[in-house]
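hey so i finaly got around to running the thing on Hydrolase from Actinoplanes cyaneus. pasting the sequence first so u can double check i didnt mess up the copy paste, my clipboard has been acting weird all day
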Amino acid sequence: MRVAAIDCGTNAVRLLIADVEGDRLTDVLRTMEIVRLGEGVDRTGMLSPAAIERTRVALVGYAAEIKRSEAVAVRMCATSASRDASNAQEFRDMVRGVLGVDPEVITGEEEATLSFLGAVKGLTAPGPFLVFDLGGGSTEFVTGTDTVERAVSMDIGCVRMTERHLHGDPPSAQELAAAEKDVTVAVDTALAAVAGREARTLVGLAGTVTTVAALAHHLPEYDSSRIHHSEISRAAVGRVTGELLGMTVEQRLALPVMHPGRADVIGAGSLIMRIILERSGHDTVIASEHDILDGIAFGLTASA
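ok and heres what it spat out for the 3d tokens, dont ask me to read them lol
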């Protein structure tokens, strides 16, 4: 069954067209555009017209790809920024006009469940798992082995923390201290809610995690096959975080594995990742390229 799954987050909108048969998913197309839909939402509570237009342009391209692929089912899930915005209806109307389907503005808990489903299929490490999906506006924490047992969403993400705290280029010591305090409180709350410290394996999802993995492994270019299910030590995450937070945006842009749309927020993202490792007590984290997109795709076949 060929399906199309779209994940629209605070920072990026991503498309997966895949053939799904049982527990097997074969990519036809997996692509991403950085649209920064959630730009300014933490401060204003609204999606800006410019951000909605950037997202519309990306979705027009995705609609053409979906039509060419002859996918038989389409689902778009919109996450943190769309939950928080007071003008979310304007966004939903735009999506319906472009894709012909309504976007599902899912809760943080639903987002966590879909991320977990995508992340643990095919993972050979021992459970129970603590999966975290580090997004632009929020980070989801979910524990379980074969199915989700507990899940919670916290309003810490690379875009939100950058806009809230990290204004310098590079950020100052005072800005970093404020961000670290904010993130630590949220992470401790989440770990207590999902019994995260009892999990045997820590799994990290999304662009911050995979970019940090690429930097930790000293890859000359971004290589999904080498990143997927690779293990990164707490020490390596700490090293990469320190390096990123000490760089200017221009210096981060020069890194061969860095997506241009991620360079200004990767410092905050890596800080969140480092704190999750420290506060959870895990010595390593497994990076997964499979995440909420895969969960959406599997869910489409289950509901068909």
